[in-house]
Design a protein that fits this description.
By secondary structure, the protein is an alpha/beta fold. The protein is built from 7 helices and 11 strands. Helix 3 packs parallel to helix 4 (about 105-130). The protein binds nicotinamide-adenine-dinucleotide.
Length: about 260
């Protein structure tokens, strides 16, 4: 899928992996609407990213707010790319010192990470479905007719959840699990769906961890033995968008880490 002359939406675009993705899509020639919670960080990110970036405040789980952001994107150019980076992390043991894990935190995690991802995917796909197909091609490869690409973000916690991660792992495993059925649903519409399962990346979500925790996490990554950089996540998004054969799959991006129980 060509980015030049296309519009993209990136949820969680005011921070971390989403902001790096927005930068990479802008570099590729797309106009990008950042979707994130209300607050100054959205406009700050737009100022940092420069021309081609727009901010729309929205909760990813809110139908009307996400639709309004998609409408802003399609007013600029055909919507070809939707990247789901919005997410929250919660940690509660199933039974902790204060008793059973709070159900409210479990529900909130599922609402943002899973329902929010599906909400954005379904609304973006419905808009893409109304557009004329474009040509996707890698250098030397054949032309492929496609309408759009949806990229979701799971986590390695979808597969190797740690102590306290029941809610987070459930939400991310569900994102990985719905990737193939959504790709099948949207295949006739010429829309691809791919999920990235990152290992540990250096973003505000992970900032503030003590040095010894960081060091221990880095040591758990076989190679390269460090945290991932948001630009490396964004580069994979670009590859997914560019390659018409990538579809219906969850790709680990993790330096071969397999998370230990804690
Ligand atoms: N950083 C990592 O190590 C790591 C690893 C695996 C997976 N992930 C996943 O990658 C994604 C991006 O994480 P990040 O590290 O960039 O985190 P981050 O905290 O830097 O960014 C997440 C963004 O999502 C936004 N957001 C949260 N709830 C929202 C909602 N309801 N509606 C709209 N926006 C909302 C936040 O405001 C924030 O700007 C998340 O889904 C996270 O679970 C991150």
């Amino acid at each position: 899928m060509e980015l030049d002359g296309a519009a993209a939406i990136v949820t969680g675009g005011a921070s971390g992996l989403g902001k790096a993705t927005a930068r990479a899509l802008l570099d590729g020639g797309a106009s990008v609407v950042l979707i994130d919670l209300p607050g100054p960080r959205g406009e700050e990110a737009v100022a940092e990213l420069g021309e081609g970036a727009t901010f729309m405040a929205a909760d990813v789980a809110n139908e009307a707010e996400v639709q309004a952001a998609i409408d802003v994107a399609t007013a600029i150019a055909p919507l070809r790319v939707a990247v789901n980076c919005a997410g929250i992390v919660t940690a509660n043991r199933t039974v902790g010192r204060d008793g059973p894990a709070p159900l409210e935190a479990f529900e909130r995690t599922i609402r943002v990470n899973l329902i929010g991802t599906f909400n954005v995917a379904r609304l973006a796909a419905a808009t893409m479905a109304q557009q004329e197909p474009a040509v996707g091609r890698v250098p030397g490869g054949p032309d492929t007719s496609e309408r759009g690409v949806i990229v979701n973000t799971a986590s390695v916690a979808a597969f190797d959840g740690q102590i306290g991660q029941a809610a987070y792992s459930a939400s991310k495993a569900a994102v990985a699990g719905m990737t193939l059925p959504i790709a099948r649903d949207l295949s006739k519409l010429l829309i691809r769906v791919v999920t990235i399962a990152p290992g540990i990346f250096e973003t505000p979500m992970m900032a503030g961890m003590p040095d010894e925790v960081r060091h221990s996490l880095e040591e758990q990554v076989p190679h390269p033995s460090r945290l991932g950089h948001p630009a490396e996540y964004a580069a994979l998004v670009r590859s997914i968008v560019a390659n018409p054969m990538l579809n219906g799959e969850t790709i680990r991006l993790d330096g071969a880490i397999r998370m230990q129980p804690k």
